[in-house]
Every structure is written in C-alpha cells, then in structure tokens.
Amino acid sequence: MGCASARTVLLFTEMKDGALVLAGYDDGVTLFSRLRFLRCFLPACGSLLPASRLMAKEVFQGRTIVIDPGHGGTTDTGSDKDRNRSSSNNATSATLGIKEKDVTLELSLLIAERIAASPEAQSGKVRAVLTRSTDVNLNFTERAATVAEAGAVCFVSIHFNSHRSQRASGPRAVIQQAAKNPHYKADHTFALALAKAVEKASKTFHPKTPAAFVHDDHELHKGRGSYLFYQFNADEKTGRIPACHLEVEFLDNMELERPFFADRKKEVFPAWAGAIAAELIRQAQAAP
Ligand SMILES: [Zn+2]
C-alpha cells in the first residue's frame, strides 16, 4: 500500500507479525524501519491507513499469562443487569485493616515481576499481562477484554478470602460450575495446581495451613455464578482457556495476620509470588 504527500510517496508493507514497515519512497531511497520510528510521517498518510493499522503492535509469539488483581478503587463498577459488576473491596483484615484490593495488587505485581524475570520470559517463551497495575476497579467486561486482547493461554484472578466465622484458613480456588463449563476438568486441574503451590509455600510460615481445594461458583450471584467467567464465555477464545479465582488465604482471620500479613513484603508475598509464578509458567507452556 502507499500514500501520497506533497513531497513524496511512502510505500508500506505488512510484516508477518502485523507491524507495518516502510518499504520505500518514490524518490528511490529505500528504507526499512519499524512503524514506531515513522510517527513523523504519519500525518501525511493518516487518511489512507486506519488508526488500528497505524498503531499495529508487534505480535507476541510466546505464551501470555494474564493476572487479574481482584477488586480495586473506591466504588463498585459495572452492574448486576449486565453481569459485570466488580466490587471495590470485599475482605478486610481483622485488626490491621489491610484491604483485599490492596494486597491483591501487591501480590499480582510481584507475580508478574517473577514471571518477567524468569528464563522462560527472558527467552520470549512466556510473558505476564496484568488487568490493572494501579488502584482502579475495572468491571468484568473490561477485565475479560484485556484477556482477549492479550491472547492469553491461561488466567488467574488473585483474591483474599473472608468468612463470617472469621476463623477459616487455607488456599482455595474457584472455577466455573460444570453445568456451564465444558472445560471444567481442565479448569479443575489448573486451579488445584495453583492452590497446592500456595499451600506448600504457606506451610513454611504457618504449618497448620489446611489442604488446598477447588470449589465451583454455583453459590455466587444466586446460582448464576461468577460474572467474570460469564464474560469469558461471551468470547470463544477466552471461554476455553484455563481460568480460576485464586483465594490465596483468609484475610479476616486474626490468627493469620501475624504469620501471613503483618510483615508480608519481607518473605511471605515473595514466597507466594514465586510459587504462583512458577506454576503459571509451567501451565502456560503446557497449554494447547
Ligand atoms: Zn475477592
């Protein structure tokens, strides 16, 4: 394709990875350069190239893992009618007042960092993408859109749990109920491996940590299940990737504040992040 300006004609060609490359000028100068270096030329040909093509990103050739830090911000977003409502915060720790939305972000950032520093990421085999990296609350349509755009091969939404008894403990994962989920078995295997990785790391700090387990989402939203999985199912690709909510530990149990949360940045969160990152890398590489 080409486009004319007062001074010259720019000829573009599209590479296999989706990048537009300047292939030459009509004045005989041949120049190959990535689109991102060509912004100075764009006003001359913008009318002929749609914006999406102009902004074409290089396509990542490896496996993409999407990590979703649950909740965020100060207000709920989305709605029950659209099945995309995300609450800004659910659990709060018993005495220290630590909010779930903050520790989901802290831990997710660490997991993404661990993945980015891994040999697999350094050699382009995997990468981590976060749905949010600041204190904002995205509705579930927006979170699912990030997963679709990133071309994820697996997905985990990070959460911390609470229970009315304020005495519960242990890692749990939540997957979509079998009646709505043709990939229930694959989701169960994926979710259990992540929860068990957390359990192993947790036992270093709190030997009484109970065994990890997986349950489904049939109790959520009066049987309708998790809105996030509902949004995933609206898209053919996101509907079939292994996905779970990972409830790393209970935040509202006073007995767990000291071993897990009071001094979390020093040892516990790095240990959880390392365990979750390693399992996600393994799962991403094994994904079909
Ligand atoms: Zn949550």
Helices and strands, with pairings:
Layout: E1 2-4, E2 9-14, E3 20-25, E4 33-34, H1 42-45, H2 51-54, E5 63-69, H3 100-117, H4 119-122, E6 126-130, H5 140-150, E7 152-161, E8 172-175, H6 184-205, E9 213-216, H7 227-233, E10 243-250, H8 254-261, H9 268-286
Parallel strand pairs: 5-6, 5-7, 7-10, 8-9
Antiparallel strand pairs: 1-2, 2-3, 3-4, 8-10
Helix pairs in contact: 3-9, 5-7, 6-9
User: For the terminal residues, how far apart are their CA atoms?
Assistant: 36 Å
Overall form: globular
**CATH fold title of the largest domain:** Aminopeptidase
Beta-strand percentage? 15-25%
- Major pleated sheet: 6 strands, mixed
The run of helices and strands is: EEEEHHEHHEHEEHEHEHH
Low-confidence stretches: 1-13, 15-56
Class per helix and strand makeup: alpha/beta
CA gyration radius, whole angstroms: 22 Å
Name the features.
Aminopeptidase; 2 domains; alpha/beta; disordered N terminus; binds zinc ion
Notes on the structure:
The chain has helices at residues 42-45, 51-54, 100-117, 119-122, 140-150, 184-205, 227-233, 254-261, 268-286, and strands at 2-4, 9-14, 20-25, 33-34, 63-69, 126-130, 152-161, 172-175, 213-216, 243-250. With 288 residues, it is of the alpha/beta class. The protein has 2 domains: 2-54, no CATH class; 63-286, Aminopeptidase (3-Layer(aba) Sandwich). Strands 6-5-7-10-8-9 form a 6-stranded mixed beta sheet, sandwiched between helices. Helix 3 packs across helix 9 (268-286), helix 5 (140-150) crosses helix 7 and helix 6 runs antiparallel to helix 9 (268-286). The longest helix is centred in the C-terminal third of the chain and has 22 residues, at 184-205. It starts with a strand and ends with a helix. The chain binds zinc ion. Residues 70-71, 90, 100, 159 line the site of zinc ion.
